[in-house]
């Protein structure tokens, strides 16, 4: 029986702002540095070598579809399916849709359901526990992993273990109760009682068992997902869910909808260096530190300081006499926080959005299927961008109503179509495109194309674009 990984990649990672944002969440970042892979890439790569492992099913937000496809291309894997949610509806609908998708490929595979943004240090131990859990799953159980707590963590959910199971291992326990993010005092008492484990959010079960339990305990989720799955459609290499169908799905977690009700749920202890990388504090805990307990990334100089996390994306950070501080600098925002308050950071993002600060959700660097662009400077009637076009990639054939553009090549080769005319540009050459003119930018070479774009006009918003042709099937305005 094959094991199909189901990777849930729809989160926004607000507790790791300003590095993680809605436009490019933490699961797509190389946030741990030491692996040279994003958290999403690590999630699948740590499974390499498991017997009967199949290609993964990915569930992600439609906004991130090209990021997911590109990151799997970088590690030379092609997912079995990439399912696009138009918006988040929590884990139960995502798992239901993924289970239905898996059953369209195989009769009744075992599904290994994973979050895309976790870290697990001991790969060998993790794989060993997956094989162990799969044997329980073959007998009709829904298995989750519980992590023995090492600190009174208030940002995690907990599992209270019940009686043991003698089927295959004395380590397996029935689940007595789930506890959501307790107070510090309650979490401290859990630390002393061995029957409480951190809830990892990892599940292993046969697809038909999952569907059966969802139908039994959450019929609204089941019925709405059946309809949503029926009306999904292919969009290039993606499976797109319709807004109208998916919005009818209840917004509920798999824990709450199923695991707290089913009699098939069991928990296995996972002691493999697990972390949900859910806050700057947890990231500090799992990162390599200097002799004073500091984690330093980028251009950072620190003196007489202890237990800090400092990260610089562009500017030099100098710290003197610091203790237990977070300082995170990006090209458009800086966070300074007591490390012990890292869970509160998620409350800042809604405040930024309420005040109209675009830094709450978007980076200056924006990723597109053909490459990326970075906004350097702008005003109401002009904007300057750095554009990077991947080798052998093209932007859409497009037109702007309100702005003109001036392109200056700084590296690589550019193929520019203006109307019916085509011109090739090299380094230090430039070209002007007036408003209301059809045009297209392509990179015909094997190296990245880098150019500076100067926009000017009465309106320079990103929605001033009319597409005529597009290699990536984009019908939206971005």
* CATH level-1 class of the largest domain: Alpha Beta
Average pLDDT confidence is 93
Q: Which range does the strand content fall in?
A: 25-35%
Quaternary structure = single chain
CATH homologous superfamily grouping of the largest domain? Spore Coat Polysaccharide Biosynthesis Protein SpsA, Chain A
Kindly state the percentage of residues in helix: 10-25%
Poorly predicted parts: none
CATH topology of the largest domain: Spore Coat Polysaccharide Biosynthesis Protein SpsA, Chain A
Which structural class fits the helix and strand makeup? alpha/beta
The biggest sheet amounts to:
6 strands, antiparallel
Radius of gyration: 24 Å
Structure characterization notes:
By secondary structure, the chain is α/β, with parallel strands linked by helices. The protein folds into three domains: 3-275, Spore Coat Polysaccharide Biosynthesis Protein SpsA, Chain A; 283-348, no CATH class; 365-469, Jelly Rolls, CATH 2.60.120. 21% of the residues lie in helices and 33% in strands. A six-stranded antiparallel β-sheet has the order 20-21-22-29-24-27, with no helix packed on it. A five-stranded mixed β-barrel has the order 6-9-7-8-12. Strand 20 (365-368) and strand 21 (371-378) form a beta hairpin. Helix 3 (91-103) crosses helix 6 and helix 6 packs across helix 7. The two termini are 42 Å apart. The relative contact order is 0.11. The mean pLDDT is 93.
Task: State the main characteristics.
single chain, 478 residues, alpha/beta, Spore Coat Polysaccharide Biosynthesis Protein SpsA, Chain A, Jelly Rolls, 3 domains, 6-stranded antiparallel sheet, 11 helices
């Amino acid at each position: 029986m094959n094991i199909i990984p189901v990777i849930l990649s729809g989160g926004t990672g607000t507790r790791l702002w300003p590095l993680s944002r809605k436009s490019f969440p933490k699961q797509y970042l190389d946030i741990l540095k030491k692996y040279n892979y994003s958290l999403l890439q690590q999630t699948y790569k740590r499974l390499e070598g498991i017997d009967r492992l199949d290609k993964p099913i990915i569930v992600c937000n439609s906004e991130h579809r090209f990021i997911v496809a590109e990151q799997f291309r970088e590690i030379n894997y092609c997912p079995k399916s990439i399912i696009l949610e138009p918006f988040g509806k929590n884990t139960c609908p995502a798992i239901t849709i993924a289970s239905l998708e898996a059953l369209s490929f195989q009769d009744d595979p075992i599904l290994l359901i994973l979050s895309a943004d976790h870290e697990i240090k001991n790969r060998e131990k993790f794989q060993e526990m997956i094989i162990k859990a799969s044997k329980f799953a073959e007998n009709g159980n829904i298995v989750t992993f519980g992590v023995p707590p090492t600190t009174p963590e208030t940002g995690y959910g907990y599992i209270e273990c019940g009686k043991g199971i003698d089927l295959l291992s004395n380590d397996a326990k029935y689940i007595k109760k789930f506890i959501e993010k307790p107070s510090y005092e309650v979490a401290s008492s859990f630390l002393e009682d061995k029957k409480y484990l951190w809830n990892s959010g990892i599940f292993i079960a046969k697809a038909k068992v999952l569907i059966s339990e969802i139908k039994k305990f959450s019929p609204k989720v089941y019925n709405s997902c059946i309809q949503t799955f029926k009306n999904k459609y292919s969009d290039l290499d993606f499976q797109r869910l319709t807004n109208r169908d998916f919005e009818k799905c209840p917004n509920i977690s798999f824990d709450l909808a199923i695991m707290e009700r089913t009699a098939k749920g069991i928990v296995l202890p996972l002691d493999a260096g697990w972390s949900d990388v859910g806050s700057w504090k947890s990231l500090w805990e799992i990162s390599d530190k200097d002799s004073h307990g500091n984690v330093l990334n980028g251009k950072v100089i620190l003196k007489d300081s202890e237990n800090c996390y400092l990260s610089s994306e562009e500017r030099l950070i100098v710290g003197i006499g610091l203790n237990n501080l977070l300082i995170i600098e990006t090209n458009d925002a800086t966070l300074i926080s007591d490390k012990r308050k890292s869970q509160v950071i998620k409350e800042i993002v809604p405040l930024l959005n309420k005040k109209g600060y675009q830094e709450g959700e978007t980076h200056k660097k924006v990723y597109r299927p053909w490459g990326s662009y970075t906004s350097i400077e702008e005003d109401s009637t002009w904007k300057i961008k750095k554009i990077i076009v991947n080798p052998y990639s093209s932007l859409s054939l497009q037109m702007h109503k309100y702005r003109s553009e001036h392109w200056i090549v700084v590296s690589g080769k550019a193929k520019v179509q203006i109307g019916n005319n085509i011109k090739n540009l090299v380094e230090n050459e430039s070209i002007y495109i007036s408003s209301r003119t059809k045009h297209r930018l392509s990179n015909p070479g094997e190296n990245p194309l880098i150019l500076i774009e100067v926009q000017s006009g009465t309106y320079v918003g990103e929605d001033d674009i009319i597409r005529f042709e597009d290699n990536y099937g984009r019908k939206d305005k971005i």
